[in-house]
Design goal:
The structure is a homotetramer of 307-residue chains.
Chain A: E1 3-21, E2 28-40, H1 44-47, H2 57-71, H3 76-90, E3 94-103, E4 106-114, E5 120-131, E6 136-144, E7 151-163, E8 188-198, H4 206-222, H5 234-248, E9 252-261, E10 264-266, E11 283-286, E12 291-300
Antiparallel strand pairs in A: 1-2, 2-3, 3-6, 4-5, 6-7, 7-8, 8-9, 9-12, 10-11
């Protein structure tokens, strides 16, 4: 046979799963959108049309729902680890399994409420939630049979941030193709996404880490709340953000950060000098397309045995 | 000629406009996505291919940018009113103009920062912002030449909320087509959108009103943070929300609220009783499609001269 | 009570329905995405939390599936008319019902196949289909109890067309806000959507009419395949298209056509004259936003008793 | 320094480019949405905030437009190869460049036109086009400095196909998690995407190859137009499609095909037996989520020197 099967797999995407913990009046929830993919040891369902090794993808979904009910859900990474462990234990011919989980950004509704003494207090609601999609949290967990430990990657998408000063872009190459001049002070805006792989997952608080990374990226971008911080290029900002995460989280092995550069073009007031004389530092035209794209990945050097 | 022109208009959609006020280190921003449509007194560009009455839609966009730079931007409603007034004054043959403005939900980045005395304070950033799309704010403003005042409608979209108890749906019609039984306690989730028309716009704080409406809808849905509130049907919840807004905002004439009913189906554990015996009150399957849809519009009775 | 309920309704959106006719080896299919909304004679589910009049929206969906199975499906308009008739007959307190149906653009897969005599013929497949979304077909059908006949509107969305010549835009107003010069020959591109209401639906072949309208819009836009036709403005093109449809389909009462004007900006080669001297008539930058928008609605004058 | 830069790059995404060839009345067009990413030999713009090595991403876009005008555009693969060659030649410190180009599916408008002899002929329009997005064509071309040849991958997305019979799914594992029974005859529907890498690009007609692959996937799925072909599982169908492509195109080295399995659930008529007695083989409920996912990659064994 002249070909090798060099890639294969199957599973289920778009599995929606909602879990509520109703122990007492204070309810806690998780809503996930899950992809699960597995690889089997043989190929006969491909090459011979013989399905006897197939674990139905509906069964994989049922397994998730059943284990979610049985053991509860702590967060996406731990849920994925539980499902992966159970699947590898139960099905000996599954040689690899990966799960990708996006979490829905539900937050408790906050409300002011009068207290008996007449004052007002801000309460978190016991059982009502609002969708607050400032950034999407997701994870990707992969385990191959025989590996000593799973690969756990956490990430965020859609962190859209903007600053109105302290961003220059100067001294790049000027030649016959370049039309952009040096800029001393531009609007910088990005829709950041980042992902980091754990060197060790023992005793990790994945939720806290996620919040740390998100806040670090925003803080490195914006700088001090009063004085800001200067960005010389999106490359520089990406690099400093990733470096800061690795400095702060020693159990993280690798991090990648992608920063698109959403352009805000200065509105050209030259044709309108009789109406609005002088320079324009107020009105900009945000551009959806095209947009710059910059990414940086840093890896910790001293990783022993990390694959 | 056997036909009447019973509708016509033209304009520009998808106008992106960003404005920054840089008076001092504390910058303020607005980002809009704008539609502007106008109607002319004659039809000859349609019927005769004679374009001499056309105000180019690029000119409309330029006018916005120029006036935005000249006078600054206070918010979408006031900006629309300014543009509409100028357009009707400048172009005598424009008989109607409407503007639809969506605002981008930029919020200042908040950061903890050490104070000189060693304590920590939470600061709002002077010039860095984060996109927080919990609900989209928009407005629609329309003015016909000769009208005594413009029609101003404010609205929100995408307020996604969920509660895990205090929602029943019972005593509806049961017949040969119905398969859903009475439900005592279900998960209720909606992606609310609402719009309200002003009876009067004098001295209105549009931003504050918008926040009031958004909070009222969330509060009517969730109820008391500890005890919640019972919903007997989405219809009931929609009605009570609108009524509350009209009670609170006497200068609002009409409000419409649309509440889709995003279904969360109980995961059927009957096939898995050996694994997870008993009832399931933990795991639900969120359904994207289909979804229920309910809307209610209330109008104030005592509106004199309101069209 | 200080308010009137001036609008209300409920129903189900996003109902996916697939029907296959398997009489013989030649299968025929319909796939719909349906919205159904109804209004009841009373309001007590809103004002009192009393649900006894509610026809559950799941029941409405079941009714559709059951009738679809029983009577088959001829097309979206006729299916909507059947469901509407049944609903009004069965539920005496339903005072209005509307349905919006989008159809999925499945077409038979075509294949060349060798014939016994050695020649090749192009066959339509008996039971395999491909999604060909050149334009989306939809309809909106509304019936109020007591009306003599339903309102039937058919429409299309997403007909994206472009021509590379025979489009000018000249002699419009030039003033202090205009920056666009007269253009003799530009690229014209639009994503057309249109809708038409029937004066009479007796013996109408809705599918054939839909294809006629789609083809008329494309033909009026493009003109003769060799020589084309001149467009003096998008307004003119919209008007001529609608007029042609009303000329061709006497049982159509009203038609609206919306033509966004997707801009293709000439790439400015002035900074690159040493590399590419002379004018540029080859490279354009398509712009997603903003885009012009033009619409025209024509109504037949001699409509007796049409509401 | 405790970290390595293990990944980096930058460029421009969402570059829209339209090219028209107007030599004579028969115009030809290309519309692309382009991503271009490059890697530089050094890192100082990341580590030191020193930008002197940066080729501005606007300059990359200008280079594309200028070369597109100068040399014309034959297709996405050849355009990418031209841009990549020029960039590597001009900028000696660019060590890698990749381009991803999506093409817009413009087709000539076809029209029937009367001939002088009174008969009718179907013409392709000289300069008017319609968007026919049955499947999206794209390519990915990558070149590292020093490599003997570029990596060229062509692909398609969004080929949505469905068949109403000749699909079974049987004999898979049945255990405590499985709820799906064996199915003899189901509706099979997928939104196929595929990508193939060339072993050699000499004298390749990329457009013809793309059409061959698309047609092969549709043909393997649907089978004979009269009799069809039996699918025992999506795995089997994916495998046979890829195998057929490699059989037909000897200059293709590797191909991957991903076939989501869009579920069409039989509408359960058991509660409605009084209305529609017997089995239901007509009405199905299409499900958007979740959906199965299957992929297969085959590689030619005898590839000498292929990296």
């Amino acid at each position: 046979f002249p070909y090798d099967i060099t890639g294969k797999g199957y599973g289920k995407d778009g599995i929606k799963l909602f879990h509520v913990n109703r122990d007492g009046p204070y309810h806690s929830i998780h809503e996930f959108d899950i992809k699960v993919h597995i690889k089997l040891s043989g190929n006969k369902e491909y090459t011979e049309g013989e399905n006897s090794a197939i674990v139905d993808s509906d069964a994989l979904r049922n397994l998730m729902c059943v284990l979610g009910k049985k053991h509860g859900i702590e967060g996406p990474e731990k849920f994925a680890l539980m499902i992966i462990k159970e699947t590898l234990e139960k099905y000996a011919h599954v040689v690899e399994i990966s799960m990708n989980i996006e979490t829905y950004p539900w937050q408790r509704i906050r409300q002011d409420k009068a207290k008996p003494d007449g004052s007002t207090e801000n309460y978190e609601h016991n059982h009502a939630f609002v969708f607050a999609p400032t950034a999407l949290r997701y994870c990707e967990v992969i385990m191959k049979r025989g590996d000593s430990k799973p690969t756990v990657i956490s990430g965020f998408k859609g962190l859209r941030i903007l600053k109105t000063t302290k961003s220059s872009f100067k001294h790049f190459i000027k030649d016959e193709y370049s039309t952009t001049p040096d800029i001393n002070d531009r609007i910088l805006s990005t829709i950041a996404e980042g992902a980091w792989e754990y060197a060790s997952i023992e005793n990790v608080d994945f939720k806290k880490d996620w919040e740390t990374v998100r806040d670090t990226v925003a803080k490195t971008f914006g700088g001090d709340p009063v004085h800001g911080t200067t960005s010389t290029a999106t490359q520089r900002t990406a690099y400093l953000s990733v470096k800061q995460v690795l400095d702060d989280l020693p159990h993280v092995a690798i991090m990648t950060l992608t920063l698109p550069n959403r352009h805000y073009n200065n509105f050209d007031t030259r044709p309108f000098q009789s109406l609005v004389p002088g320079e324009n530092n107020e009105v900009y035209i945000p551009l959806d397309k095209p947009y710059g794209i910059v990414y940086a990945e840093l890896s910790r050097k001293d990783l022993q045995g990390h694959n």
